[in-house]
Amino acid sequence: MSEEPLISITERLDELLREAEEEARRIVEEAKAEASRIVEKARIEAENLRVEVERGETLPPLIEKEEEKAKREGEELLKRYEQRVEEMRRRAEEHFEEAVEMVVKEVLMR
Question: pTM for the full model?
Answer without folding.
Answer: 0.47
